[in-house]
Design goal:
0% strand, elongated, 70 residues, mainly alpha, 2 helices
Length: 70
Amino acid sequence: MTRGNQREKDRERAQARSGSKGKTKDDGLTPEQRRERDAKALQEKAAKKAAQSADGGNTAGGGAGSKNKK
């Protein structure tokens, strides 16, 4: 049995799917600007986490002893 042009059609479909969804990294920033933006975001995240831990502790832990219930 021959496949005819099925492979060719599949390639066209795959290319159409991947062409419309492509995640591009081109946000108009230079690598240096991107580094600065990312560093600022990480600093803000760290400050938020530090403030949260100073306010009362571990609310995201999920309970320490709850995993071993039988």
